[in-house]
Structure formats: C-alpha cells, structure tokens
Amino acid sequence: MDPTERTRAVYVTQEEQSRLDAGLAASTIKVYVAAISAQHNRVDGVTVGSHTLVTRFLKGAQRLRPPLRNPVPRWDLPLVLGALSRPPFEPLQDLGLDVLSMKTAFLLAIASARRVSELHALSVHGECLIWHPGDTGVTLRPNPSFLSKTFSTAFVNQPLTLAAFSPSSQEMGPGQDGAPLCPVRALRRYLQLTAGIRRSDSLFVCHTGPRRGHALSKQRLSRWIVGAIELSYSSGGVPVPPHVRSHSTRGVAASWAALRGVPLSDICAAASWSSPCTFARFYSFNVVPHHPVASAVLPTPSQCP
C-alpha cells in the first residue's frame, strides 16, 4: 500500500470519528463518506468509501450507534379513524375545503400506503382518473412524467385503485350519505368542491391564497395529512402527539394490513417496496392493541370465579 494513500484513508476515518464523537448518527457519517468519495481520487484502486479501513470504521460506527426506531407509532390509527367518522369531519356535504382536503389526503395516504410524492403526482387528467361503473370505485394514475423514488419497471406509473365502501344503515350516522371512511366518497366530494377553482391537472390543489386552484406543493400535502391526525386528537380532547410525520402513514398502514392477514407480497407491491426486508427493518410497527398472551391467559373480571 502506498503510504500516502494509506494516510489519506486514515485521515478520512479520523475526520469521521470526530463527527461520530460529536453525536452524529452512523447513517449521517455514511453520507459524509459518500461525498468525500465522489470528490477524491481512488485509494489502492478503490474509492475512499470502499477502502478497507473506511468500511471497517463504518461497520464499527453502525454497531456503536445503531439506528433507533420507536417500535410503536406516535399516533393511534383507530382513534383517528373514529374521529374521521364524527364532527368536525362529518357530515361530508357540510365540510369546507380546509377540513375536506385534510380528510381526503389522509384517507388516500392510509388506504394506499403510498409516499407523499406519489400522492402528490396523482392527476385528474382524463386518462389518469377513471371512475368505475356504478360508482364502485376509482383508478388514479400519476402524471406520466413522474419518476418514483423506487425506479423499477414494476413501480413506474403504478395505478392506485380504490373500491367504494357499501355501508349498512347501522354504519351511517345522521346526515351521512355514505361510509364516513370511504376514500372514494371523500375524493368525489373533494373534486366537486375544487372543480370551480381548479387551474391544474394535479389532484390536490391550493384552496386559499394567491396560488388558489394551482398545484399543491408536496410539503403542504404532508401538512394536510399531519393536520388530519392532529385535528382528530384535538377535536376529541386528547393531547396531540408530538413529532407526527406524514411519512408514518406508510408504516402504520402496512403494519395494520399485516396484522389483518394481508400477504407481505401484496403489502410490498402497494407500498412500492422491492423486498419484505424493507418493511421489516424500517416500517413495521407493533400495532397490537393489547398483549395477546396476557389477554389469552389472564381471565377477565366476568370470567373470574
């Protein structure tokens, strides 16, 4: 090994060690190493990031500071769904665009497990929005120019198909014209209210301000999804959980689907994950409402002698 090249590799590890000591996560350190590799010459015929000294350092950093992820979601899906079935989210025909937009965005996100960027790319163009006969559902497609984060032929322009709910009379509250949690029902009403202001083929459009009727930003769409969760808590007098992120709907939706017996292959296809390992490592939550062993072993008060 060239001593000069070895010194360069050692220098990189020393620099990254100082960042690790400063409290940076191992994943952040890897980003720094990748940036250095892109701008420096090769060492011993390989990039700096692939050098033995650097790769060993990165493995050690990963073990010393493994990524921490909360095993349970920050917000409760049953609580939010219950709130979406009551005021201020119902009756649907009485809602203004502010609340209706939040409800529609959340229902599409939780029903599809899609990324915000994928929801943002959905279009109302005639070839991208197709209603099924008899109001039984709808198929949505993204703008053809949209490129998904997961660039694969299996996920390019993947359609989003939603079936309409057919509730019984017992499921419908006073003044309701359909299942309160039906995303197709909410979507249809949203399109009706935005038809008069729409200036863009994007599904979600701004309903206030100087950009009224124009395409909504991804950041604002994320805020709508989070807003639906926060309003669900506050309207019921429950403290709003901190640090709620719109991206969490993917993990929550997939985890509940897995709990209900949906095959992992179907979940991965819906969420555009190439492998179940992605779900298991980064998105799986413990959404069991109670401890299954305790509930099976310990008797309830009515069962006690």
UniProtKB/TrEMBL annotation:
One MF term in the entry's GO annotations: DNA binding
Superkingdom assignment: Eukaryota
InterPro entries: DNA_brk_join_enz, Integrase-like_cat_sf, Integrase_recombinase_N
NAD among keywords: no
GO biological process, one term: DNA recombination
Keywords: DNA recombination, DNA-binding
Protein name, entry field: Tyr recombinase domain-containing protein
Organism lineage: Eukaryota, Metazoa, Chordata, Craniata, Vertebrata
